[in-house]
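re: ur msg from earlier - yeah i can do the magnesium ion complex, just paste it... oh wait u already did. ok heres what im feeding in:
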Amino acid sequence: MSFSTPADPSATVAHATLHILHLEDSELDHRLVCRALEKDGLLFSIARVDTLEDFEQKTAQQAYDVILADYRLPGFTALDAWACIAQRASQPPFILLSGAIGESAAVAAIQGGIADYLPKDDLRNLVRVIRRALEVFQAKQAQAQAARELAASEKRLAQFAEHLQTAIENERAAIAREIHDDIGGSLAAVRLDLSWIARHVSHGETQEHIQTATDMLQHAIGASQRIMLSLRPAILDQGLYAAIQWLAESFQRRTGIKTSLATRNETLHASKAIELTAYRTAQEALTNISKYAQCSQVKIDLSDAEGVLTLEISDNGQGISSAALENPKAFGIRGLKERAKVVGGWLDLSTRQGAGTTVILSIPLNGADTSPNEDDFQ
Ligand SMILES: Nc1ncnc2c1ncn2[C@@H]1O[C@H](COP(=O)(O)OP(=O)(O)OP(=O)(O)O)[C@@H](O)[C@H]1O
Ligand SMILES: [Mg+2]
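and the outut:
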């Protein structure tokens, strides 16, 4: 059994015919209600029921825009009727239209979800009360709809972020493969030929040119290896600790900032997707430090204590202002947060101006690995 809400709720307050269900055992009182509604020029259709069974049946069969209910009926009260429909997915405004029921009962009824209460001797205000109840009802419907749309849109965004990250990693891996197979292969062949030529010519000036070309070639080979490593961190094959150690050492060499890495478990192991997330987090955090922190020291801590992979990267630099964090064009930290979510983890940021920044990635390592396919990101 289902109950539907008005087809077009915005129409009900204004011009459309209102479908009203009246729970009332007195025919005379019912007629008085009809007259009050007619007097105010309301377009309406009304049905009367006076037993709980009929009430339940009617509300299950047809959609009403509003329910008016006498409080005390033979063998039951309006609250029993309300209880019949209160658990359904949606109910129209339910207005108590009754003789004196006492203020505390009226308050309790409204707290229980009943829309309003109007004494029977105040029927001239009936249409006004109905309109107000409908307006409140529509506002609540709109709010619920907006909340549903927001939740759906957040879900779509999270799925898109996940898709994007997988696509980016796959693309990076493909480019790294191309560089390795095409450029790397050709450069290695040229190096062999150059060394063959060097062995077979004795002319001094030619030898000098061969040496310059070999140096340039060596430089190109080094650069392509560096690009490959940043595109697809092959170093991860040696484990997360080794990969982050490599990142930390090259960061220290490049920036001159003292960088230390601590762990209690150098052989800690997680799924490929989790390890790649941790690696990319360390990479982005170190890039941010070199760009903005102006610090003299970086500490990295890696742990898998209590079944949670934790990676902490702290600097003793200038900290991040809240304005910088809200910069709509900055995607690094936002991207890391999304990335952590994809593998069932989260990212915390602790920072104070002048007192440094700490980025903390936490990912539970329990069996229920929600991370993308192990084969991704190869
Ligand atoms: N370790 C840090 N110390 C000081 N400021 C930082 C640090 N990390 C980030 N910030 C500040 O926080 C902002 C947001 O960083 P985020 O990584 O999200 O974006 P970005 O680095 O500016 O751009 P993107 O990463 O998208 O290239 C930065 O612009 C910077 O002002
Ligand atoms: Mg950044």
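cool cool. The chain has a mean pLDDT of 88. ping me if u need the other ligands too
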